Amino acid sequence: MDKLGDYATYISVFEAGSFSVAARRLNVGQPAVSKAIVRLEQQLNTRLLLRSTHGLRPTEAGQQLYLRAKHILHEVAETESAVSGVAEVLTGRLRVASSAVFSRLIELPDLSRFLHDNPELAMDLLLDEGELGLIAEGIDIALRIGDLSDSAFTARKLGSATQRVIGAPAYFARAGMPQMPRELLQHDMVIHHRAGGAEEWLFTHEQQQQQVRLQGRVRVSATECLREMVVAGFGATVACEGLFRSELREGKVVAVLPQWQLPPLALWAVFPSGHFISAKARAFADFIQQLLQRE
Predict the structure, then answer these.
(1) Cα(262)–Cα(219) distance, integer angstroms
(2) What family is reported (predicted)?
(3) Which segments of 45-168 does DSSP mark as H helices, in order?
């Protein structure tokens, strides 16, 4: 490996916390990974990683090298991308992890168009709620919504999603149509419970604000369960508008309190490799960003 390759290997080992996991991610043998780290330690004349029964632990020098090398390799990748231009043919297999909510913001015909435009590219699409080990699973790009819990990865904001109060017409016919956010306290609410998710919402209308902490009768972690309960008329929910895209279009559910605004949810592309962001991952992020801007 060249020196940049050794630095890239070190970053993978640092983030994976394991020589074997980094080797799988880089698709090389573990001995090659170990040799790269030894070369770096010899060249720099310092210990970078300490091995113990609990795994790998970076030294202070190792921590500094990681931060600086990651920045440098990111700049190299940006330069290579700018020089190579947009005519590069995308090949290989792109592994994408997406939260269920984000996946519903992308219509399948659009996703098919990306594959049609890149005939030499294959794709693995893994739906998850942030529980996958991105490095261990060899993920090229993860699509996330809301606050990011792990700052070790490189993230790029792609857009934002609108949150609305949504319910079935039959439910509101039975329970009454809310005119103010605080009236939701008297409604049956289905709460999407997730790590880092809020159960308190700030509604804004012109100069007015109402902060409401909803005590839902039901809290669910699976988005499909949330959708089914709301469509079936069990209660209302506060959710990303895109989660109910087709149901809103067909009139199976309606959005209420239209004059009251909720803070938008940020949509992110997360690149877990930590060093070279592949051309195919970058192209896919560009494609998704264009789709979101079209909405």
Answers:
(1) 20
(2) Belongs to the LysR transcriptional regulatory family.
(3) 60-84, 100-103, 108-117
**Structure confidence by residue, pLDDT tens digits, 10-64:** 888 888 888 888 888 787 888 888 999 999 889 889 999 988 777 788 899 988 8
Q: Is the dihedral of CA 244, 94, 145, 294 positive or negative?
A: negative
Q: What's the sign of the alpha-carbon dihedral 27, 32, 33, 37?
A: negative
Could you tell me which residues come within 8 angstroms of residue 195 by beta carbon, excluding any fewer than 6 positions away? 129, 130, 149
- Crossing angle for the helix pair 30-44 and 60-84, to the nearest 10 degrees: 110
Amino acid code (one letter) for 20? S
Q: Are 69 and 11 in contact (CB under 8 A)?
A: yes
Q: Is 197 helix (H, G, I), strand (E, B) or coil?
A: coil
Task: For residue 248, give the nearest of 283, 156, 239, 291 by alpha carbon.
Answer: 239
Q: What is the pTM of this model?
A: 0.65
Number of neighbouring beta carbons within 10 Å of residue 281: 22
